[in-house]
Design brief:
globular; Nucleotidyltransferase, domain 5; about 270 residues; five-stranded mixed sheet
Amino acid sequence: MGLTHYLAPPGWNRAASHTRPSIQFSKPENHSVGRRDADYRNAYELALLRSAAMYLPDFLDGFDRLVAFDAETTGKRTPDAEFIRKQPFAWRAPGIIIEVGFVEMLREGGGWRKGETWSSRVNPDGPIDPEATKIHGIRPADLKNAPRFPTILQKVKDFVGDAPIVAHAYKNERDFLDYEFARAKVIQWGESAYAEERYICTQVLFAQLFPGAIKSLTSMCDRLVLDSSERDDRHGALLDADMTADALILLERLLKHGESGAPRSWTST
């Protein structure tokens, strides 16, 4: 499947020695939606907003291509690098990702349209927590003939390219990618597959625009009047990445104009 790469704006060159445009932020106290600490409903909300600078209305204006990403997993947590380094030489880190989903977002006028999509099941060479299966419906038998992550790693890199990565609760998705890249021995344990500033977090942006609201992907889509009914039965990496992409379209318009004007169903074009 051919990929449609975005037109690189001035300053964004694919050569590693060159710089690229950065996502624009402001400090919370300087932003139009900034509040005093006492105005936030709980400590978690305040900590979430403090964990990253707040998005400026024009934070995506320098980009022509984004990639929304989501992963389904075995339900296991990613161990930290120090724990892994202490394991015996013969120890093999089990896989965690069992499905990946990517949605390309391309600049169209003053907004975005969705382009290519790609998803793949992944054989983790390890067990799946039954509680996780209740969420995504993926059983070990479903992955018997699925490729292992090193097999699809180049496809992941090619699809992402130089684009910013859009994810909901991005630290989870970042940690999953870092772990699997390290398992595949393309980076060292504790290193990052993609730089921190490459990630755009819809959860942080949603919390910025809707202080106090529940920040799960389903709750965010419900608040934005996006149809999330397909998640009622089971989650899926491509489904969740697609919903994340649609949510970002709405959130950027809300941030810029105070209204969305986006389709009311994630399946709309």
